[in-house]
Amino acid sequence: MTNRYTRRIGYWLSLLGIVLGLAYLVLIIAALASGTFPPSGLLQILLHIGILLTVPCMVILWVAVHLVTPVERQVFSLGSLVLMAVFAVPTSINRYNALMVIPKAVASGNTDGLEWFLPYGGPTVMAAMEVLSFGYFYGLACLCLAPAFGAGKLEKAIFWTLIASGGMSLSAVLAQALESIPLTIPGILAWGPGFILLAALWGLWFKRQAA
User: Fold this and answer.
1) Of 18, 91, 143, 163, which residue is most buried, by most CB within 10 angstroms?
2) Considering the chain, what is the average pLDDT of its residues?
3) pLDDT at position 1, please?
């Protein structure tokens, strides 16, 4: 009974993940189309809010995946879940800081040292935390979870999506180390289209198990 309920929650969280992933992708495309990156004004605010909404959804989705993973493979799902819990902290701090601290500091004129805490650009503390989160910990979480899947065509598709997403996410760490903008592109693909595809595959996976 508990597993059936968890699978239903996982299914709906997967659908929510698709919606939030699409919203993130649309905002990124809009930012790039505007010719200004990092984005400014309302577009940047929406990105911060969108990520703050998406991160908890991702973590709880990982919880659902762990709970319905066969016991013999839960060492992978639990390890991945712990990495996702760590992943949620730096990016949430970054986005909350961008919404609640930076605008007030700018408005008050208290901007000494503020450049180190901007959410984009580099080198800044917050930009490094973002790559640590989405690049390093999310990448490792995907790679760690991949071995939990592999039985059947759908699970193999999930396996390879996790492997690809993990590898592309880690490229963002290399991009920051080498100060290479092109190397950030695979990371963006992993966090946008990659997560949307993963959520869609998980939606099918949960639906089949709940049937």
Assistant:
1) 91
2) 91
3) 45
Q: How many helices (H) and strands (E) does the chain have?
A: 9, 0
- CA gap 73, 103 in Å, rounded: 46
For the chain, give percent helix, strand, coil, nearest 5. 85, 0, 15
- Tokens 């699978």 correspond to what residue? 7
Phi, psi dihedral angles at 37 (to 5 degrees): -140, 125
Res 2 pLDDT > 60? no
> Assign residue 41 a region: left if phi > 0, alpha if psi is -120 to 50, beta otherwise?
left
pTM equals 0.92
Quick check: helix, strand or coil at residue 110?
Answer: coil
Residue with tokens 């100060």: 179
User: How is 142-195 classified by DSSP, letter by letter?
Assistant: HHHHGGG--SSHHHHHHHHHHHHHHHHHHHHHHHHHHT-STTHHHHHHIIIIIH
In the Cβ-directed half-sphere of 3, how many Cα atoms lie within 13 Å? 11
CB atoms within 10 A of CB 110: 10
> pLDDT per residue over 103-154, tens digit each?
999 888 888 888 888 888 778 899 899 999 999 999 999 999 999 998 889 9
